[in-house]
Amino acid sequence: MLLEMAAQGFGPRVAVQNGEDRLTYQELFDAAGVAADEIRASGAKHVALLDVSSLAVPVALFASAWAGVPFAPLNYRLSGDELDALLARVEPAFLVTDGERAGTLAGKASVVRSREDFLAGARSGAQTEPSWGMDPDEISILLFTSGTTGAPKAAVLRHQHLVSYILGSVEFGAAEAEDAALVSVPPYHIAGMASVLSSLYSGRRIVQLPAFSAEEWLRLARSEAVTNAFVVPTMLSRVVDALEESASADLPALRALSYGGGKMPLPVIERAMKLFPDTSFTNAYGLTETSSTVTLLGPDDHREAAASDDEKVRQRLVSVGRALPTVEIEIRDDEGRALPAGERGEIHVRGEQVSGEYLGRGSMLTDDGWFPTRDGGWLDDAGYLFLEGRVDDVIVKGGENMSPGEIEDVLLEHADVRDAAVVGVPDEEWGEAVAAAVVLRKGATADEDALKEWVKRHLRSSRVPSHIAFRDELPYNETGKLLRRVVRAEFAEGS
Amino acid sequence: MTQFKPGSRIRSAVCDTEVMVIAAPDSDAQLTCGGAPMHALDADPPAGAALDADAAEGTQLGKRYVNEAGDIELLCTKPGKGTLAAGGTALTVKGAKPLPASD
Questions:
Q1: Nearest to A273 by CA among A244, A240, A295, A246
Q2: Cis peptide bond prior to B37, omega within 30° of 0
Q3: How many contacts does A have with B, using Cβ atoms within 8 A?
């Protein structure tokens, strides 16, 4: 339905481009219609996509909706048993994948198509139905969560959730004709899906970057006169590093840069704001289970916080902003009681875009409709939300709860520290002890004692890490999430 | 009187207008477009209905139409010539509150 409107509203505009290849809104609409016929005829119950970003992504996404079956984008890095297990969960499936795997995966799904064959078929046929019905209760997208803590769960997003999100956050056709969004997040991530829907509903051209590198991101942003982009913190950090020598980023077209999907270190956002003085920054916080964004720290919030002399206001630069008008946020304690401003607890979210459902496990919503995110955090007096890491990552040392993020923030403010991860490790005396894995800048000289002293000076002595290990890199997944279980495992192995 | 639940798509009997129901209370007044009752997208239009010249201000694609109480909201998914109304009172375009793009 969203695409049907976009095709009527701005049919001849380019909807999506990948390298030299592009589809207009009308072409995308027509191709989705043809592909939907093929999917319907195949009898498949899911459309699965195992691929990087390509024109096949929006075609397959909308064709699934049109055919009335869920769209399941899979992590293209998966292989072997993990991949087989996921494919088995979506059978009978219509699988779209890269040319190489279309051969090796034959037989693992009812229908296997290479990206090229799928697109060629969709573009050459004639669509038979001019319009499509949409049952708001049907599943639109199945997203397997990144599983940083265990086996992937399939988050269920129904049409009603995604449509609520889009209608609540995007004005139809609000984009100017020349607007272009650079999409570098992978399709199996909620931000990748949300960017397709938001961009198309607003009438923006999507420029796909299938394999992120800072150099390629900058090249495309310049050559395509990109006006909007979304990045995860790791990507922004790399872009800023790549521009280290420059005084300015030299991206005159870039009006808006939004980021989310992980904690943004204060030094990175401060450097980015200096490098892109004319760009509006927006921080978005959301989860797969909440159909993407639920809170926003908008451009005005960024400017106000950066320019303020009031410590409380300046601190908002590391917050994730305030709830969307269509969303409610509440902080609750372990017993489910709502907590006042300033107190730490678990973040709960409520709103029509919030699904909170996993396939085979049902809804995780409370009786009164709140989704417990397992993210820890607190709200300030004005409703700005501050994240404190996953509730499950909280370190309990001798009965005292401490958030790894708080200690990481202090370590990152040390001039010699490039990156830091703090985890709890088993300790006979305290139950848990604080351990920090630290990446130093090139040529830095800080040692274990210096960093302990630094933390002691800025926080209570109980926060001082008992163990500090120096690493070349920290383990992140490809969407910028720190893999704490890997950090913990490394400490357990004593490496 | 026909009831339409949120999420359902309905069309005008007398022009090209199609809308998706975003909000509509159970006790809602009859939804009309161009002076004639609206009907489900997949139902046949009633015969003989004609556009009322007094209800022909037209609908715009992508705009949201609301009543004064704010409990009825329709999203125009296809524009047409008629005026959307509930219980005989014309609906008005809901003002947009722009949010910064987040993804």
A1: A240
A2: no
A3: 85
Rounded Cα gap, residues A197 and A187, in angstroms: 12
> How high is the pLDDT of residue A145?
78
Q: Is the Cβ pair B41, A292 closer than 8 Å?
A: no
Find the CB nearest B101 among A172, A173, A258.
A258
Q: Is the pLDDT of residue A479 over 90?
A: no
In chain A, the residue whose alpha carbon lies closest to the alpha carbon of B76 is A5
Say whether A160 and B7 touch across the interface (CB within 8 A).
Answer: yes
Q: Is residue A492 left, alpha or beta, with left meaning phi > 0 and alpha meaning psi from -120 to 50?
A: alpha
Contact yes or no for A170 and B100 at CB 8 A: no
Q: Which residues pair with B18 in a beta bridge?
A: B11, B78
Task: Give residue A222's pLDDT band: very low, low, confident or very high (50, 70, 90).
Answer: very high
Condensed to tens digits (0 to 9), the pLDDT of residues A155-201 reads 999 999 999 999 988 999 999 999 999 999 999 999 999 999 999 99
CA distance A312 to chain B (A): 23
Nearest C-alpha of chain B: how many angstroms from A188? 14
According to DSSP, residue A315 is labeled G
| Among the partner residues B20, B97, B103, nearest to A191 by beta-carbon distance | B103
For residues A44 and A329, what is the distance between their CA atoms, to the nearest angstrom? 38
State whether residue A39 is helix, strand or coil.
helix
Specify whether the CB–CB gap between A423 and A473 falls below 8 A: no
Q: Is the pLDDT of residue A393 over 50?
A: yes
| pLDDT band per the 50, 70, 90 thresholds, residue B1 | very low
Question: Closest Cα of chain A to B51: distance in Å?
Answer: 23
What residues of A are in contact with residue B6 (Cβ under 8 Å)? 136, 160
Q: What is the pLDDT of residues A73-126, one digit of tens each?
A: 999 888 888 899 899 999 999 999 999 999 999 999 999 999 999 999 999 988
Q: What is the DSSP letter of A418?
A: E
The pTM is what?
A: 0.87
Question: What's the mean pLDDT when you consider all of chain A?
Answer: 91
Helix A25-42 and helix A56-67: axis angle, to 10°? 50
* Angle, CA A273 vertex, CA A269 and CA A275 arms, to 5°: 115
Q: At what angle do helices A2-10 and A25-42 cross, to 10 degrees?
A: 150
Q: Tell me the nearest-neighbour CA distance from A33 into chain B, angstroms.
A: 17
Using CB atoms, pick whichever of A5, A159, A228 lies closest to residue B101. A228
CA of B74 vs chain A CAs: smallest distance (Å): 11
Contact A491, A428 (CB under 8 A): no
Measured in Å, how far apart are chain B's first and last C-alpha atoms? 41
Query: Which tokens belong to B37?
Result: 């009752």
3-state class (DSSP) for residue A300: helix
Closest CA to A187 of A197, A175, A174: A197
Query: B99 and A170 in contact by Cβ < 8 A?
Result: yes
Does residue B34 contact residue B83 with C-beta atoms inside 8 Å? yes
Residue of B nearest to A3 (CA): B77
